[in-house]
């Protein structure tokens, strides 16, 4: 098990949102129609929350190794939306706290552990 802080940075794009939607079958227009999203007060289309959970799981697998796939537990709370152009930094701290932050604000918080 790693006791170091782990980070993953991913520039968010509409192509990422589109491809993830194809994979999971999410057809919500907020993920695909920029004008529609802006009319509802968002900065643009919104990324899929489970995409960011996947970033956390990727880091957790690096932190805990093989055990993560059998005994891993994750708790997350989605705080703010993520839009195309955002530079999203996902971090797992040394005490297993999870943070996703764009250049604008915190977007997700939570924790990871082994059962």
From TrEMBL:
<feature type="domain" description="MaoC-like">
    <location>
        <begin position="5"/>
        <end position="107"/>
    </location>
</feature>
<dbReference type="InterPro" id="IPR002539">
    <property type="entry name" value="MaoC-like_dom"/>
</dbReference>
<dbReference type="InterPro" id="IPR029069">
    <property type="entry name" value="HotDog_dom_sf"/>
</dbReference>
<dbReference type="Pfam" id="PF01575">
    <property type="entry name" value="MaoC_dehydratas"/>
</dbReference>
<protein>
    <submittedName>
        <fullName>MaoC dehydratase-like protein</fullName>
    </submittedName>
</protein>
